[in-house]
Design brief:
Helix content of chain B: over 70%
Order of helices and strands of chain A: HHHHHHHHHHHHHEEHH
Radius of gyration of chain A: 37 Å
Largest sheet of chain B: none
Distance between the termini of chain A: 49 Å
Distance between the termini of chain B: 15 Å
Strand content of chain B: under 5%
Structural class of chain B: mainly alpha
Largest interface: A-B, 21 and 26 residues
Strand order of the largest sheet of chain A: 1-2
Strand content of chain A: under 5%
Structural class of chain A: mainly alpha
Number of strands of chain A: 2
Oligomer: heterodimer
């Protein structure tokens, strides 16, 4: 465990040190991975599905804001769908527009979840998304995750029915629209998934905010179980053909995935290095403010095992000598304070009678003796 | 001579200005009523476009029915229904946006207050420095 903690601290250090390179690399990899998944699943426009083009687009995304990846991914998806059928592209385009107009103007940051949900779905860990969003997001994440689920199921539907949609060419535009919209609206599994994910996010969110020990772990476990339960009930009620074993295995995998993520990413409390510039009347300041980071190294305890064992008698002698030493120290301390008090008083009164001093000495000695006796007892 | 305390404060202020500060300042430049009315107007426009898109999808979905039954449909009643749905949709969306933006305005104002307090502190530091220089 200590090694893991040290590793985490080192990761934190690495992040803040090479942040300037790591962020573009991260964006590049995310964009490339996203575009490859889109091309792999619905790559109907062959011109766009070429690897060099993917690299160029990903490179472009690495220097632009994060939301640009989402715009590029949406554009790429629509282009591929257009190559398959205009109606399909129109329906998906309208759905994208509705999401952007109605929801993402409130929280542009949440847009990334819409991208991550289909990616996690394609990777086989869709259940990790509601758990993660419950841990780091808020109840409003329900909407973004819901949108992500809709996108995932639409693309999944298009992928499955591509040949059927192409065959409908002869029947005209209206029947194609009807088929696509029916396919999207009539997908019961999608609605069950949206409800289960929404409930999971809310459960995880409220449990992780509770004032109890290990609230995060409990939240993940309870959220995962609730998710499985709701999917099973949904499957029984609506006959959605959701694989039960797949759900359980997926939830276990998602639990492990979120636990690792929680340890290495969420607890990083990684504060950014700030680079700012400003000026006053005399100077231009180019400031790089680096947050203080300390690496917690494991505490090494050195335990000495002495060869000779002291007897009980020796121990008693050692202790009593220590007590005597302490009492002697106390006597000397008391004498010092008494003499200083005396000096202070002498400054004011100047009583210099010999008998007085002798009496005071006597009194001090007596007090010291009493102190020693009390302590030696 | 560089005043360390002042540089620290200025760094913090500059970091805030570059990040969250930009957005908060944009919000803070409005009066509450103006800001909320602007956002509500935007919401109504967005809701109208969205409703139009949904209606368009619905018409495309049911286009065969429309073509066949256009003369049998009570068009005035149909239009009334559509207007009712439009008003309900827009009203719900506008109320949600009002709540969200009212909350956002309050939060931004609170942050700006802290920012202005820090600016005052900076001014005090400047004045103190100038006084030291003149002495």
């Amino acid at each position: 465990m200590t090694r893991l903690l040290v590793l985490r601290e080192q990761l934190k250090l690495l992040c803040s040190k090479y942040e300037i390179y790591l962020i573009p690399i991260g964006k590049f990899l995310t964009a490339m991975f996203t575009f490859l998944i889109i091309n792999g699943n619905i790559g109907y426009m062959e011109k766009l599905a070429k690897f060099p083009l993917v690299i160029i687009m990903a490179l472009l995304c690495s220097f632009l804001p994060l939301n640009f990846i989402i715009i590029m991914a949406a554009g790429l998806t629509l282009a591929h769908l257009y190559a398959l059928s205009l109606e399909c592209a129109a329906v998906v385009g309208i759905l994208f527009l509705l999401m952007f107009l109605l929801y993402f103007r409130f929280s542009p940051k949440d847009t990334f979840v819409v991208l991550l949900t289909p990616i996690c779905g394609a990777l086989g860990v869709p259940y990790a998304i509601p758990m993660t969003m419950g841990l780091i997001g808020s109840p409003s994440s329900v909407v973004s995750v819901g949108c992500g689920v809709v996108v995932y199921y639409i693309l999944d539907y298009v992928k499955d029915c591509a040949s059927a949609l192409t065959a409908l060419d002869a029947e005209g535009m209206t029947s194609k629209f009807k088929t696509v919209i029916d396919g999207v609206i009539g997908n019961k599994a999608m609605f069950v998934m949206i409800v289960a994910f929404a409930a999971t996010i809310i459960i995880v969110y409220f449990i992780r905010r509770m004032n109890i020990d290990h609230s995060w772990t409990i939240a993940i476990i309870v959220g995962g179980l609730a998710n499985i339960l709701m999917l099973l009930v949904g499957d029984l009620v609506l006959v959605t053909n959701i694989s039960i074993i797949g759900t359980i295995l997926g939830s276990i995998f998602a639990f492990a995935f979120v636990k690792v993520l929680q340890f290495f990413v969420f607890n990083l409390d990684y504060t950014r290095t700030e680079r700012v510039q400003f000026e006053d009347d005399e100077y231009y300041y180019y400031v790089k403010a680096v947050p203080k980071i300390t690496i917690a190294t494991p505490n090494k305890k050195v335990k000495k095992v002495s060869a000779s064992k002291e007897t009980a008698e020796e121990r008693v002698v050692r202790r009593s000598s220590a007590t005597v030493q302490r009492s002697e120290n106390a006597v000397s301390r008391e004498r010092k304070t008494a003499s200083s008090q005396q000096a202070r008083r002498a400054d004011g009164v100047r009583s210099t009678t010999g008998t007085g001093e002798a009496m005071r000495d006597e009194m001090l000695k007596e007090r010291a003796k009493r102190y020693v006796d009390n302590h030696s007892k | 001579m560089i005043n360390e305390e002042r540089v620290k404060l200025m760094t913090r202020l500059a970091a805030y200005e570059e990040g969250e500060g930009k957005r908060n300042e944009a919000i803070g430049s409005y009066f509450r009523g103006d800001y909320l009315s602007l956002q509500i107007m935007k919401s109504i426009i967005y809701a109208t476009i969205s409703f139009g898109l949904i209606l368009g999808l619905f018409v495309l979905y049911d286009s065969e029915f429309f073509v066949q039954e256009i003369y049998q449909i009570d068009l005035i009643q149909y239009a009334k229904n559509i207007i009712f749905y439009y008003i309900a949709f827009t009203a719900v969306y506008t109320v949600i946006s009002y709540v969200v933006y009212a909350f956002r305005y309050r939060k931004a104002k609170k942050r700006l207050k802290v920012y202005f307090n820090n600016l005052k502190r900076l001014q005090v530091l400047y004045q103190r420095e100038r006084k030291d220089k003149t002495q």
